[in-house]
Structures are given as C-alpha cells and as structure tokens.
Amino acid sequence: MSITVSHISKSYGIQKALDEVSFTVGGSEVVGFLGPNGAGKSTMMKILTCFIPPTSGEASVCGFDTRTASMAVRRNVGYLPEHNPLYLDLYVREYLDFVAGIHGLNDRTRRVNAMVERVGLGREQHKRIGQLSKGYRQRVGLAQAIIHEPKVLILDEPTSGLDPNQLVEIRALIKDLGREKTVLLSTHIMQEVEAICDRVIIIDRGRIVADDKASTLRSRQQHHEVIEVEFDRAVEANLLLNIGGVVQARRNEGNSWLLAHDAANDIRPAVFRFAVENGLQVLGLQKSERGLEEVFKELTRR
Hints:
Blueprint: E1 3-12, E2 15-25, E3 30-34, H1 41-48, E4 56-61, E5 64-65, H2 70-76, E6 77-80, H3 92-102, H4 108-118, H5 134-146, E7 152-156, H6 164-177, E8 182-186, H7 190-196, E9 199-204, E10 207-212, H8 214-220, E11 224-231, H9 237-240, E12 246-251, E13 256-262, H10 268-277, E14 282-288, H11 292-299
C-alpha cells in the first residue's frame, strides 16, 4: 500500500483532533478525504507529510514510517498545503529551480520546463510569484509538489481560488496524475470529488465515518428518495409537509421544491392531488438523484 494509517490519534492538550484513525490507500488511486471544518483532515495530512508526529499509532508512506524514516517519506511525497506557502519575491522559474535544487535533482532545467508546461504556467513563468493571481499561485504550488516525481501526492484544497476554466484544467491534471501516482485529496467541493475521485473517506470529529466509492455511499445511505417538483406559483413549505409521505421540503429555485420521502412509497400521485386541491399547476416533476452532498450531511450531522 502507498499509504497505511493504523490507529492514529493526535491530541493538542485536552483537544483530540484524531481518534484511532485507520485506513489504507493503494497505488494509482485518487481518494477524496472529506470532513467538516475542524474534523481532522489537515492534521492527518500533516502527519503523513512528517510536519507533526502523531500522539499514538503508526503511519507509513511507500513503506517508510513517518516517525523513523521521515526523509525517505518526504522524498516520496508531494504536498500542497491548504495555505499555499510561496516565496512571493521569487520569479516562477526561479522558485521552481530552487525547489528542484532542494530535492537534489540533476536535470533541474528540464524538470522546470516540464512543470511549467504541465500545469499551464507558460505565460506567467517570467513573473514574480507575488504578481500572480491566486489561481496561478495554486498552479505554482502544484508544480512544486510534483517536480521531483513523487509516488504519492497529498493535496489540501488544491483548487481553491481557481476560476471555472482553471478548475476544469486542474481537475483533469489531478485525474491524469492519479493514473500513475497515489493522490489523497482534501476538498469541500462535492462535484470535484465525484468528478475525479475513485474513493471517498469521510472524517468527522477525528473519526472515520465512511470509506467507500461515492456511488456505493450514495446507495448505502439512501433511506429517502427525493423528487423535484415545480409549481406555477409560490407555495409554503408547511403545506408541502402535509402531503402524505413527505418528510422534508427544501426550496430549490423559484417555485421549484425538493421533496424527500420514504423510498418505499411513491408520492407523485399525492403531489398531483395536492396541486389540484390547491389550484396549482405542476410545471415539472422528476426524481432527483441523491448527491454526495446529502450523504456527507447525514454522516456529519452534529
């Protein structure tokens, strides 16, 4: 396994950030590491990259223990932290050459050229980092994370600050990297997870609450189905909750509503009866596919 975590706990005084966390990640796998703010995601990533030690338990990367072989771990890991630390006074190429030197690379110029091309920094490569937009700074951060060809990539909010076009490009890059490397990716964007991750690990209050494929999680947690209904005019939520079988009514857009109901019962006939009784027209009615966001909310509801 590229990453092995066994019964890891981390405490800051009386505050327990991680509580007996265990999981493994294989090679050529992109894993989404999700959780609410303060759940322990960044703490786990800092342990795996040897920035901080665990209070108890063991963790290894590419077979190297994070406590006893930290330099070997660092040679095999590329890390982009949540708050991307860069030397703003350096030029892009100058900075990447500096990072290549830290890793002891012999072919520094070739590697810098390759990274500039791979992450799309061609037009910005001769600028100071401090002159770049946040999105391009993220690209520089990604470039420094992969310049030494690590076997494992640990990315904490890698698409933060990117515009829609950049999002598509960086997601494609991460997915491409996942074909040859192990990628552990932290993000709050559920669409991103569904688009690029092979597997999802959800952590809440320092404990793993789910670990599976996104599609499996959606079906396993599905106690309710959701239909989307659009009326011709406004309706009060309390009226919709009186429809037999409806357990939750959430406004979508305009006069459109998402109605959750027991999966065993089809409430569509009851919705049509409700519309007739209240002089409403149903402009649209369809089943709404349950997304990972709903699963995430169920599993991390406090």
